[in-house]
Structures are given as structure tokens and as C-alpha cells.
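For consistency, the fold was encoded as C-alpha cells, as this record shows:
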Amino acid sequence: MGKTEDVTDFVIKLDDGCMCKPQMTEILNMFYGYHFRWANIRSLVFVGTGFASFGNDPTYNPQMDPEAQMAYFQFIALFPNIRSIAYAEDGINTVCPGLAVRFTKLYPLYYWLFHYYRTQLTAVQGLHPLPPKALSSVAYETTDLTLNSWYLGHFIDSPSFDASVLRKMTIYDIIDGINWGWFRSRNGSEVVFSSLEKLSLRCAEQPHLETKVDPTGGFVLRFPKLLSLTVGGSIPVFGDIYRLFHQSPIEILKMGEDLNDLRYIDARIVSRIKAFFLVGRPYSDMPAFIQREAITRFYNMLNMVQHVSLFANPFPLTGVDQMFRLKCLNIDLGADEFPYLHRAIQQLPRLGVLDIVFKRHWSAGKYPYTLLPDENMPAIEDAVPSTYRYGTNVIDVSDLPPISTSLYYVSIAHSGPEMFHRACILIRSLPNLTRVAVHESNALGILEFNRIRGRGVKTEVYG
């Protein structure tokens, strides 16, 4: 075994059907046998439904379980400096809203360890299966916090967190507001998150409330160091929650909202950001028609942005000439939207990376949003002359008029002959392209195409 000081994370996984106590004892005995104190281990994660095996036995009494108690004392002796304790049912997502309604009791060791380490924890997850009373038993000085708003809101006891020391916070399953009273402040009704740099607020999916909730909850809120903000599904609950952050120095903004609702938001929130992620989240499976102005007014305010990701957004983009600093664009396109791509690239003089993924299909194979007819809609470019087609004798690898001299990397997730053809056209139109990533179905054709062109464009392949 390597140096113990190199080990900082400890994950214990017990799948359904495992005998929790014997396996836990064997694991700890293995660590104990090395006669080391694993002082640099900071993070402890329990994974798997095996930890619930004994908790669901109505005859089980943890106080009469000498093995559980022995495991507890071994743990605190071996790992004295734990700063984070978490439980993940599947080992993938520890903040899955689905866990909130499954009040599964765990092996008591989890609760005992949380209670023992609680005064030194810097990362806390306020969600099931941790009992809310465990959170309310101490005033936390945590720097990394994850809270399930719905779960904690069902209990009288309230946690208490020092707003001034938090650096990263996630609150999810928000239904009818955020309880800012969970956060201690030295200034009465003013809550100042003076160290918070990253904040994520995710609302539960629901229809619009007739009366929107005041996002401040009656508090004066300040986020003077906030750099990264993620908000999802907030407009039906709050209207414009983004107004809380107009004075914050946000550089990264991630929005997951119904694009039809963007009219409620003051677009100035995006005027100073450097990275913008906009994911359309319609509240219906039926395709929705939206006015172009609903989204282009956001594009027109992106004066400082360098990285943009747009998913489930209608295309073509207009007004992108405001994004003259843009260096990286991630976008999903339908096959019928590709003809507009060249025009958009031409408007982005500093674009270096272009990543094109599939546009998600919804009901009846249609896209979630469709732009209403607009007289200012740009015309589709004329068809580009045919290019090299793999497996035929038609070879045209000549250069086309350049559409960008800065673009050096292009990735196209689409497959099929049509996308092969469009990839070849892009390659012929980008004189400084050095790498192209394509679907495996088109990989051989692109490799041969680039070989014939002799330009040294590296081809990457993914399935």
C-alpha cells in the first residue's frame, strides 16, 4: 500500500444484499492492520443500498450491536480529520431529488460518525437520509453545503450555517421559496455571503405560481464574491430571481429555464459574464413557438462572453456579432439547421472551438422550440458545391472561401452521409483547422478526405 498521506478520499460501497456488519468489520480490520492513522483522509462516502439492510429490520437495536459500536470506535481512531461525510445510493449522484421521498434508514454507523465529526465538517449535505435534527444540533462552519429545501422544510428544527464562511452552496428541490433564515448573519435581517464563490439553485418542476414568491424572503441578501451562478426552473416560482445578483461579480452563469419565460428576466444579468450556458427546459412535451426577441435580447447583451453553450435553443442565431470576444461555442443542432451555421461562424471573429451535438428530439420527433416566422429571418445559404464522398470517385478537396481564420477545432456528433458531407465542407472552409472530431460512422471517410487534402488535420473519433 502506498503512502497514507497521499490518500484523501475514502469510499465504501456495499450493494443490495451485502451483509453490512461483517463486510464493514473486514474493511476496517484491513486498515487497522497497517497500524497507520490515516490523518490526511478528509472525505468519507458511503455508497449502495447495502447500508440500509439492517436499518429496515424492525427488530434491530443498534445499541445492542457490539460490531457496530466497534466499527465506530475503529473509524474515529483511524480517520481523525474527516471534513465531509456523504451517502450516495447509486454512487453517481448524491443529490438526487428522488432520494428525498424514500425515507430509508441506514446502518447507524453513518449517523454516529456524522454526530462525532459534526463540529469539524467543512462539507455538509442536508438531505435524506440525514435526520434534520442532526443538522440543527450545532452551528456549522461549513464551506461546502448541499441542502434539499423540500426535505428540510418538512421539519420544525432548522439548521444554522454561518453565511460568512460558505464558499460553495447548492440548494435544490425548491418549491415555495428559500429559507434564508437557515444562515446566520451578524447584521440582523441582512445576510451577507461574504466568501461564497459558487451557488446553485434548482427549483422543483411545477407550473407557474399565481403569486410569485419574493426571492429575498424578507432578507437583505448580498453576494459580493459570487463568481459562478447556476439556476434551474426558477421563473415559475420567483419570476426574476436573477435580480438578486446584479451587483455580484458573476463570471459564469448557467440557466435552465423555459425559453418562453425569459421575458420575465432582466437581460442585464449577462452583460459582464465570461461564460454563459443556456438550456431550454419547456414545461410541456409539445413543441413551443417563441418570438426571436425572447432569446436574442440575451445574446445582444453578451458583450464580454468568451464561452457559450446553448442547448435546446432554436437556430439560427442572430445578433451574435455582439459576441466578438467568443472563443468557444457548444451548440446542439438539428440536421435542418446546419445550413445556417456558416453565417454564424462568420460573425464570430475569435471563435477557436466549435462543438456541435445532437439536438434532443421531443414528442413526434420535433424540437422543443420553434421560432415564429420573422421577416428578418436570414436566408438559407445557397447549396455548397459537392465535395469528396467516401466510396465514390467524386473527389473535390479544393479550398472554399474561408468563413473563419481563427477556428482550429470542430467536433460534430451527428452521423450519416449528410453529416459527412457537411463536415467536409467545414474543413474546406477553415484554413487554420488542426483537429476535427467526428462520429465513428464517418471516421474512415474523414481520414481519407484529410489524407488527400494533405493539410495535416488530426481526426478524432467517438461513438
Observations:
- The mean pLDDT is 80.
- Residues 137 and 159 are 8 Å apart (CA to CA).
